[in-house]
Amino acid sequence: MNTLAHRQLPPTPRDAAIARSTHEALSPYGGMNRPLTLRIRDSEQEQPIDLPAGVVDLLMHVLEAMAAGKGVTLIPESAELTTVQAADVLNVSHPFVIKLLDQKAIPHRKVGKHRRIRMEDVMAYKNAIDRDRELVLEQLTLDAQAHDMGYGAR
Q1: 112, 98 in Cβ contact below 8 A?
Q2: First vs last Cα of the chain: how many Å apart?
């Protein structure tokens, strides 16, 4: 992969606890969609660090995953993935990704005999199927409510 991807394996219990307390401390500032200034104290010196709003949001997601004991992988949007990597991102099998590419459900390019898929195209596909699933679930809920199947209207 020609990216600067970074993978953090699942945290130790100590790191998960630190992530949990840091997430709790930063949570009032998450979702504000504005930059945040942190002050770092090291050897009696204090240094401010400005974080862009997008970084604050991303940091909150990373801390949340680590607090839950999960590993995290950061992949830039401009990255090109192999079919195996795309399958990992989508949490599907490698043959299923190949089928999607053959059906032109996800754009890709060939490098020799190998296929490369842009991360942004993988995420666009994932977001589209997530939206479709949400619509189907909403319709199923409405149908269940209409037929008085034990699901009360909200």
Answers
A1: no
A2: 46
Q: What span, in angstroms and rounded, lies between the C-alpha atoms of 145 and 54?
A: 39
Residues of the chain falling short of pLDDT 50: 1-2
Pick from 7, 6, 8, 35: nearest CA to 19: 8
Report helix, strand and coil shares of the chain as percent, to nearest 5.
50, 20, 30
CA atoms of 36 and 77, how far apart (whole Å): 23
Give pLDDT, residue 1.
Answer: 41
- Is the distance from CB of 115 to CB of 109 less than 8 angstroms? yes
Quick one: tokens of 31? Answer: 């979702």
